[in-house]
Design brief:
Helices cover 31% and strands 15% of the residues. The chain is α+β, with helices and mostly antiparallel strands. It has one domain. One of its GO terms (cellular component) is membrane. It is found in: Membrane.
Length: 186
């Protein structure tokens, strides 16, 4: 699809649904042909653990954001709100690169990014180690796995909502988000 041979990953083989990227791309790529449609798609990647070159080539025509550096710009894009307006610049408290980690969820995100970055440095071939040969069966895949991570989702109580506050010179509105999920390694 991107010009190279298809790869098979251990995670895809362990998953009950398999590779989800290829079917998603096959649904999105035809929309890219129509110039008005590609604006619906946004690519965001963590600059600390990957680069713009890691983004699949079909997404070269979409907007790309480096997280956490451009997170506030991404958020404005999702809200369909302008950050820069005549005579003022809008900001969202707590979403800047130097402040996002001051709340519990931001701190957990930063810790996860740092942990993965350290893992990449210790295991430079980490991605190649996750590749499978086509001949491997599911039991062999599970036997070869070094660790299995069980994910447990926790819902944040309604009383513990995460609030991002949008500050402008003329208006003041609040965006509340609840239902955050946390992954825990067992």
């Amino acid at each position: 699809m991107c010009g190279d041979k298809q790869v098979f990953l251990r995670e895809d083989a362990r998953s009950t649904v398999g590779d989800m990227l290829s079917p998603a791309l096959s649904l999105m790529v035809p929309h890219f042909i129509r110039s008005a449609s590609f604006e619906k798609y946004i690519v965001a990647y963590f600059d600390d653990v990957c680069s713009e070159e890691d983004v699949p080539s079909p997404f070269n025509i979409t907007l790309r954001y480096k997280l956490m550096k451009q997170f506030e710009e991404l958020f404005f894009r999702i809200l369909d709100t302008e950050k820069h307006e005549p005579g003022k610049v809008n900001h969202i408290d707590g979403l800047s690169e130097d402040k996002y980690h001051q709340c519990a969820s931001g701190r957990a995100l930063r810790d996860a990014i740092d942990t993965f970055h350290e893992y990449q440095l210790e295991h430079p071939q980490w991605f190649e180690d996750e590749l499978l040969e086509q001949s491997k069966s599911s039991p062999e895949i599970c036997d070869d796995a070094k660790t299995t991570i069980n994910l447990i989702k926790y819902r944040v109580d309604d009383s513990t909502q995460v609030t991002n506050h949008l500050n402008t010179q003329d208006t003041d509105s609040t965006v509340d988000t609840s239902g955050l999920y946390v992954a825990e390694e067992l």
